[in-house]
Amino acid sequence: MTREQVLGFRVRAQQLDRAAGVATDAAVLDLGVQDSGPDGGLWALALRGVDVGGLGADELVTTWTVRGAPHRYRRADLPSVAAAVEPFSEADAGKRIYDAAKPLKAAGIAVLDALDAVAAAMRAVVTRPTAKGEVSARLAETMDPPYLRFCRPCDATHLFEMPFRLAALRGGLELQPGTSPPVLQRIAGFTRARVASPDHDVVRAYLRRLGPATHQQVAAYLDAPVADVRRRWPEDAVQVVVGDDDGGGGGGDAWLLADDEAALGEPPPAATALLGPFDLFLQARDRSLLVPDAARAKALWPALGRPGAVLHGGDLVGLWRPRSSGGRLTVRVEPWARLSGAARQAVAEQAERLAAHRGVRLAGVDIAP
User: Whose CB among 191, 196, 219, 287 lies 3.0–4.6 Å from 229's, allowing a Cys bridge?
Assistant: First the structure.
C-alpha cells in the first residue's frame, strides 16, 4: 500500500474529513486526545466536527495517561480507560517511569508497588482541588528517599515526575482542565474497570487510528517494551506492506486490523486542517512516512517549541504558528511547496475557525512565499 493510502486512511479513521459530530462518536477519544498547549484537546475535537462550545460541563475528563501527558477522554469511559493505560508488566512500569526506576529497584521496591504507594499518598493529600506544587511538596515530606529526587532548578526535593503523573489516575485523580500549573482533584465515584473494553485497548486503538504500524512503533508511542506490546497484539491484525513505488517515506511490513483493510481503497479525503502540535495525526511513530523529507521533519518535530502542521488534500503540506497580540491572532504559514489559490483560501478559512475557537479576532494569515 502507498503512503497516500496510509495517510488517507488515517484522515478518515480520525474523522478529520467530517463536518459535524459529537463527543460521544468522536473516534479519537477512544485513544485520548493530548491536551498540551492552547491548541490542544478541544481544538483537536473541533477539527473533527465536535461543537466544543456545546459540550456538557462534565462530559469530558482530563488526566495524565500515555507518556505522562495530559489527555482528554469521555468521562463515561474513564473506568475502562484507566484499565487500558495501566502498565502491562513490571518491566513496562519500569520503562515508563524512566530514571525513577533505578532507586526503587536498588531499594528492593517493585515499580508497580511503588505506583500504588504514590497513588495512595496522592489521594490522601488531594481531599480538595490542590495545585500540583502543593501536592508535590506534601509528598516530599512523607515519601521515603527512593521515591524522591533533588531538583537543581527548584533547589528542592520532589517526587520523581513520571511516577507522580502515572500514579494520579491510579489514585482516582483528574486534572482541572485549563489550569496552569495543573490543579488535581478527586474523581467522584471513581472505580477502575478490571479489564478495558476493546475500544480503549491502547494497542488496538493505535492500529485503528494510526495504522498500519509495527510493534516497535506502538511500543514507542506508549513508552512500553516491544515484548509487552507483542504479547498484546490483536489476533485479528493482518500484515501489509507499506511503501511507495518511487521510494517515498516509510516502507516495510506493518499491521492493520482486518476490519479496516477495505477502507484502504477509498479515495483521498479533501480535508484541510491546522493540526495542533500534539494532534493525534502527528503522534504516529512512523515519522519518515508522515514527512519523508528529513529537514521538514526536523522542523515539524524540534526538541522545543513545536509548530502545528497544515493538512490539505490528505497530506501534510507545511507548518503553521500562531501569534497573538491584543486579542488578535495572526497565523503564520510556511508551506513546503507553492499553495494553489484554493488551498490558500481553505487555509484562511481554517485560520478564521481557529480564531473563533480561541475567542479572538483574526488579524491575518501570513503565508510565506
Answer: 219
CA dist 148 and 262 (Å) reads 51
Q: What CA–CA distance (Å, rounded) separates 366 from 364?
A: 6
- Other beta carbons within 10 Å of 297: 16
- Cβ partners under 8 Å of residue 123, min gap 6: 171, 172, 173, 186
Query: What cell numbers appear for 336 in the block?
Result: 513546503
Take residue 325 and report the three cell numbers written for it: 497580540
Tens of pLDDT, residue by residue over 182-233, are 999 999 999 999 999 999 999 999 999 999 999 999 999 999 999 999 999 9
Distance between CA atoms of residues 132 and 145, nearest Å: 20
The residues, ordered by sequence, that sit 6+ positions from 181 with a Cβ below 8 Å of its Cβ are 131, 132, 133
The DSSP bridge pattern shows strands 130-131 and 183-186 to be: antiparallel
Q: Are 1 and 7 in contact (CB under 8 A)?
A: no
User: Could you give the angle at the alpha carbon of 234 between the alpha carbons of 233 and 240, nearest 5°?
Assistant: 90
Q: Cα(110)–Cα(4) distance, rounded to whole angstroms?
A: 45
pLDDT in tens, 254-309: 999 999 998 887 877 889 999 999 999 999 999 999 999 999 999 999 999 999 99
Phi, psi angles (nearest 5°) of residue 75: -60, -35
Count CA atoms within 13 Å of residue 99 on its CB side: 6
Rounded to 5°, the CA angle 85-89-94 comes to 90
Q: Are 118 and 147 in contact (CB under 8 A)?
A: yes
User: Rounded to an integer, what distance in angstroms lies between the CA atom of residue 288 and that of residue 248?
Assistant: 9
Reading the block at residue 266, the C-alpha cell is 477509498
H/E run at residue 298: helix 294-300
> What is the DSSP pairing of strand 237-242 with strand 252-257?
antiparallel
